[in-house]
Design brief:
about 180 residues; alpha+beta; about 35% strand
Length: about 180
Amino acid sequence: MNQESSPNAKEEKSTLRPTVLGLVAMFVILLLVLSAIVAYYPEEEDEDKLCPRIDSGDVSVPWGSKTIVSSTEVRVDFGKVMPEPRPTLLTIKLMKDDEYIGTYAFQTNEDGPLILIEGEDVGNLTYIDLADNEKVNIGDRITIEDLSPNSDYVIAMFWAPTDDCITEMYFSTPPE
């Protein structure tokens, strides 16, 4: 029996080839777009190093500006604070290079050094109450000394009564 290709079979082959090529091309383009998205939006590994963000709470205390004074000293200012808490209601955590963490407490509501209450001694922290009103508000500052040059740090503020994280900030010290 002699089988000949019908005109309909040839037509099916000719329309099938462009369809398959089109699907392959669309798949390759999709892979390229996905790889570009992954490359453009890398994992956010620096997020929430010390604590998860709190969703709600009675205190809103963002960090203000930071000033890198030297390879061993940084100044971190408080931002707008609502309500204005007493310093002794806060604790500060300082982390160096993702591994050394120290928790510091305010000794009084006045200017003065913070004391290490838990963990590693990562630096010497001193509170400066700009208005001398014994409340944390704009312009108040924490000076951090005895830091390691060429290191990455995270400073986080906690509400002491509940140990909830309020905010955190990242900074790096330059080489000597």
